[in-house]
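Re-run requested by the PI after the first attempt was lost when the workstation crashed. Everything re-entered from the original request form. Ligand of interest: D-xylitol-5-phosphate.
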Amino acid sequence: MTSLINVAPSILAADLNHLGDDLDRVSNAEMIHVDVMDGHFVPNLSFGTPVVAAVKQATRALVDVHMMVTNPDETVDWYIDAGADLISVHYEAAHDLHGIIDHLHERGVLAGVVINPDTPVSVLAGVIEDVDLVLVMSVYPGFGGQHFIEETYGRLRELVKLCDKHDAYPLIQVDGGVSLSNARQLGACGANVLVAGSAVFNAHDPAMIVRELRDLATIGLTGREE
Ligand code: DX5
Ligand code: ZN
């Protein structure tokens, strides 16, 4: 049976000297999350197109690119060409969000929109019907290993209400500080794609953490043990 919850290990926490091995260790994940940071939109620099292409070659999972850049309008094509299956752009950075979403769809790629912790959920009203995924940041983007912001639970619930109101059902992804201690509640609040970096790759058995994150969020979602 297809799982109701997807898990997306973030390679920001992987061992880059052994990226292929680390991807093999999470072969039970539905997505691989690749953080693209430009040193402007966030105070850190990370991966570009060569890493996206390498991930695409090394995994059968969906390649999920999270673009933390100031100019997504001009650069999404680079990542489509490199093999991204899903591209999420920040609401705060996009100049023509609808134009980007249409373009991603025209090119056969799933489209996501991301909001930072201090961006109101209500800004999504105008775009919720057009995207495949909404990513609610549960830390200020830029670094792995940060503490989960508790207000995220309420923001997820608000997003679910907004989706219901618009009769729109994008995937709801959460990113930052996700771990076994909050996965259940995240599922209960409506998140169905969990991004996790350090919780997965710092573990002895990353595949087990992927499975446990999925199981806990599924229990939260369905309100019962599987
Ligand atoms: C943060 C990134 C996250 C990061 C999550 O800006 O967008 O994807 O890798 O890392 P953890 O799970 O360690 O908080
Ligand atoms: Zn991310």
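Saved to the shared folder this time. Helices lie at 19-25, 49-58, 72-82, 97-106, 152-166, 183-188, 198-201, 206-222.
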